[in-house]
């Protein structure tokens, strides 16, 4: 059996090789800042289906032809990680695998069998595939984060949301890159996300914290696309020059997709008379829809002359539902029609 370290290194290198061969980096940074794992599986010609899997998160088959199954009973971040894990099995030439909750937990002991080593390799592949170092650096540059800023659980959580993986997976992947040491990683992983969400919401309470993600949206997210779920909350935090009469207003919102549930302000540093403040507008997702939220900062008596504008696109589709991956549905239908002819 190959050494543990060399096997994990090889798996990570294979993820990087696939990024290079399929030009995934360019696609990601010019897209929504997330690696398209489902699209990659489709490009490799591997059938991908989402379905109910009692007791399992995913499965990889090799016979009579390669195929991947992913559960419909988990949130999008776990579906994506599971799909990347199964893609790892395929790309690394592994044996068929039925994968349960264990793929979401980082083993603290070295594998003692070939089967356990195979799972560790698929896990390393998934982490390197979904959050490569270049993507971490890209988001840090966009958000103006330094490595030290990522030891703040709120920033680590926002990174996880933007790359589409779980908070814990993001923490341990950053540890692997040397962003912080194991003690900090363990402390971050042990934090209850409910407390992070409560801090971001400034008193607003959703019906269910567990099923709700909370996005902190700032000027650095302008003109990007956020991929959330139908129960998510977006806290839009923008500098407002209210001392000069400029106030943020919502110019465009799809009321069937988003609803404003809280609106407030907080001081910036020392509360100076006439100085700017932070405007916090919290919107709640209402449905699985996509659209754009647009705001303008203008004086009420000069609405047509805004000082600043802000726009962010969103897709609230959330977790994939029962059926073939959407880009493969048409081909599957054509295959069935050909067999029936």
TrEMBL record:
Q: InterPro entries this protein is in? A: Chagasin-like_sf, IrrE_HExxH, Prot_inh_I42_chagasin, Rad_response_metalloprotease
Which PANTHER family has this protein been placed in? ANTITOXIN HIGA1 (PTHR43236), BLL7220 PROTEIN (PTHR43236:SF1)
- Proteinase inhibitor I42 chagasin domain location: 232-312
- What protein is this chain from? Zn-dependent peptidase ImmA (M78 family)
The record's annotation in SUPFAM superfamilies points to:
ICP-like
IrrE N-terminal-like domain residues are 43-171
Q: Which residues form the signal peptide?
A: none
UniProt keywords (A-Z) are: Protease inhibitor, Thiol protease inhibitor
The UniProt GO MF terms for this protein read:
cysteine-type endopeptidase inhibitor activity
Q: Which Gene3D superfamilies match?
A: 1.10.10.2910, 2.60.40.2020
